[in-house]
Amino acid sequence: METTINTTHRLSTLQGKTPQEFTAHARLHFPPAHYDWRTRDLRLVKGNVTFIRFVRKSGRITLTAKDKFFIGKRYKWHYVLAVVDVAKKRLDVFCQGKRIRSFDYRG
Hints:
mainly beta
């Protein structure tokens, strides 16, 4: 299902591109090879961690397994960029380049 969505669903929020097309030229940084995504424990002390998340019908995103945030129903069905500033313990959420929400984040 993930492959189908990423390669065939064209989304207006991604300028009519599929998620795969949209990220094809993006500069991405990945966690270390030994990182177990199920634990969600990066143990970072500085820098930013960026997540791309889909806003559900409820207006919520799930950042990690334990962290859910209400973004707003007006953003349902959109993709947002969620940026955690590790040192400041802050989460900023962006939609189409505009910051739409900020949260304290203890991760």
